[in-house]
Design brief:
Shape: flat
Structural class: alpha/beta
Strand content: 15-25%
Number of helices: 21
Largest sheet: 6 strands, mixed
Strand order of the largest sheet: 12-13-14-10-15-16
Length: 657
């Protein structure tokens, strides 16, 4: 796809923002070089990956992830046997820390299989090596004393020797005999050795080795004889220290080299995740969602917003193409939103083809086009001596040369900049040519001829950007199926142009044109009336739903209060005593008494008492309890099954609910 269309449709600005959201420098370069995917399958997979990371980002928050730079080069150097510097090892540790942080972030919540699983599974954290490097190397210039026992001992000896030298030099400085020969009472270092500043005229009074002379020649820096041997010892210890540091760096470099090729796989996966994180953060920032994608060159955007316009000011539009019609002709006043609509269609299609979510409503559908061809904006070129019309025509020539049944063509003010009659004829012919080749076309225009063309031609539909004549401001609402009306006279009258001039102009307008504008006015009035009726119906529907919801909530509240009262009510327990030899009449009497008690919400404790020898007939008489419960089964249930307690068999009955 020609990169000029990326600039025309402002995809470059979207990519620039996504670059800012990348963490690593290499990822930023990958984002800058991103290209639309060529197939629908690739586009769907890329969008699904962005969606997966977006879901993880919303559930788990941002992962622990820091910038790293040129780590591939560092690892390759180690693999060839090179010794890495402390700064390079810190970069390796940072990359390993990213591997670990991303792997932990991925596992923070449970989830089904994701299209990004292979990236996270490719991460191979090395916590031991990461920890060792972090503990041994403090900064790109400093290694910790604890990096090895040998290094710690050498540095302890160096500090002890330095303390001994300072003690001796302090004695020389404070000595009344020698301090009069010194320029200043300070200790300096020259060529790695401790020295004192001696006045040039007294250089022979302080024995030792001269290591430096001041720029004026008035001061010589002398290493006193008393510390020459100790200074030499320090130099030797520093050399041993450097050898030990090199040994440690060599060991770490070998460990890094042994990680290949797995490290490179993990590093590539980390960069891909960084890229997806930038896409997901952009989606959150733009309140964007994953669209459905097809390969049939049709799209249907719902509440689509141009991502570069302030979210508080942009007016969402619904726009579709390819299902019922293949060409959309948009008319309306200048600054009414026609060009923004064109750019929104092209930009959102490109964004989806790059794996970016789009700022549009749920259920929006986009398609994968082989090319998006656009002629948008004023391309007048003074340098090339081209007029506005010529510049547009040069672009249009390139566009029609690339048209086929897999292209989306966007024309802004097609045929403008020349004689209206010829311009309208050219515009109609160009649109028809593109349609015959199977292209999907969206064009903006002011020409009445194109409005008529759209009304008369199957597969072509009018659309307009609404304009409020009262406020002289566009509403930016896109109205499908309604051609835009010329508002020149209404706007002029509102601005105060003389009625005499307006009447003269009205007389000069062709009757057929006037009749056409009158028809458009009637259509617009009918549309506004229908829109008002629809809004009123929607308002009543919402009010009805609200009243219904309030009623349901009130009924639910009453139910809960009733339940609460039942729970708060004190339940009494009435005992009914039966005997194994009870007669039928007495049993019925006791049942009626229990029924009245149960109907009041209380419990009944039924006890069948046995005396003496009656205990031998428990099994043959326990049916009395069953008969009692059966007689009350219409209002009561057995709460506790009959069981023996002492010489009585107990059973509890409670109200049936």
């Amino acid at each position: 796809m020609d990169v000029s269309y990326r600039t025309t449709l402002e995809l470059d600005k979207i990519i620039a923002r996504a670059v800012q959201l990348c963490t690593c420098a290499e990822t930023k370069e990958m984002m800058r070089a991103i290209e639309p995917f060529a197939t629908t399958e690739e586009e769907r997979y890329a969008l699904a990956q962005t969606n997966a990371i977006n879901a993880l980002l919303l559930k788990n928050g941002s992962p622990r992830f820091g910038a790293v730079h040129e780590v591939r080069r560092v690892v390759a150097h180690a693999a060839k046997g090179g010794i890495l510097s402390m700064g390079e090892l810190l970069e390796i540790a940072a990359a390993l820390r990213n591997f670990s942080g991303l792997a932990q972030w991925y596992g923070l919540t449970d989830h089904d299989m994701l299209p990004t699983d292979d990236l996270f599974f490719a991460l191979a954290p090395q916590p031991v090596l990461e920890k060792q490097i972090g503990e041994c190397i403090i900064s790109p210039e400093e290694m910790a004393d604890t990096a090895s026992v040998t290094l710690r001992d050498l540095r302890r000896k160096i500090r002890a020797t330095e303390d001994s030298i300072r003690t001796k030099l302090d004695a020389i400085i404070k000595n009344s005999t020698t301090n009069k020969f010194l320029q200043d009472a300070v200790v300096s270092i020259r060529n790695g050795r401790y020295v004192v500043p001696v006045r040039a005229e007294y250089r022979g009074e302080v024995g030792g080795v001269i290591h430096d002379v001041s720029s004026t020649g008035s001061t010589v820096f002398v290493e006193p004889t008393a510390v020459v041997e100790a200074n030499a010892r320090i130099m030797q210890l520093h050399a041993q220290e450097q050898e030990e540091i090199t040994r440690i760096l060599t060991a770490f470099s070998g460990q890094v080299a042994s990680l290949e090729p797995q490290f490179s796989y993990s590093y590539d996966a980390m960069l891909q995740i960084d890229l997806l994180l930038a896409k997901a953060r952009l989606a959150v920032e733009q309140n964007a969602f994953m669209p459905q994608v097809n390969d049939s060159c049709r799209f249907a955007l719902k509440k689509a917003r141009h991502p570069l316009i302030d979210k508080k000011k942009v007016v969402p539009v619904d726009i579709a193409l390819g299902e019922k019609y293949d060409t959309l002709v948009i008319t309306g006043p200048n600054t009414g939103g026609k060009t923004v609509t064109l750019k929104t269609v092209g930009l959102l299609t490109l964004m989806a083809e790059c794996g970016l979510h789009v700022p549009a409503g749920d259920g929006s559908v986009l398609s994968t086009f082989d090319a998006i061809l656009a002629d948008i904006g004023d391309e007048q070129s003074i340098a090339q001596s081209l007029s506005t019309f010529s510049s547009h025509m040069r672009t249009i020539v390139d566009v029609v040369a690339q048209c086929d049944d897999r292209t989306l063509v966007l024309f802004d003010e097609l045929g403008a900049g020349t004689d209206p009659a010829e311009g309208a004829a050219l515009a109609t012919a160009i649109i028809e040519f593109c349609r015959k080749l199977g292209s999907r076309v969206v064009a903006t225009t002011h020409y009445a001829e194109l409005k008529l063309y759209a009304m008369r031609t199957k597969g072509v539909i009018n659309a307009s950007c609404e304009f409020d004549v009262e406020t002289l401001r566009p509403t930016y609402k896109l109205l499908i199926g309604i051609p835009g009306k010329s508002n020149a006279f209404a706007i002029s009258r509102k601005l105060g142009l003389s009625e005499e001039i307006l009447k003269e102009a009205d007389d000069l307008v062709d009757k057929s044109d006037k009749d056409f504008e009158d028809v458009l006015s009637q259509l617009e009035q009918q549309r506004q009336q229908m829109e008002f009726a629809r809004q009123e119906a929607e308002r009543l529907k919402q009010e009805t739903a609200k009243i219904k919801q309030q009623n349901e909530e009130y009924q639910e509240q009453l139910r809960r209060e009733k339940e609460a009262k039942k729970k708060q009510k004190t339940v009494e327990v009435k005992e009914v005593r039966l005997s194994p030899n009870i007669d039928v009449n007495d049993l019925n009497t006791k049942c009626n008494s229990a029924r009245k008690f149960i109907e009041k919400g209380n419990k009944v404790k039924v006890s069948l008492r046995f005396r003496g020898r009656e205990m031998a007939h428990i099994d043959s008489t326990k049916h009395i309890l069953e008969d009692f419960a059966e007689k009350l089964s219409d209002i009561a249930v057995i709460e506790k099954a009959p069981k023996m307690e002492g010489r009585s068999m107990m059973m509890f009955l409670t109200e049936k609910r």
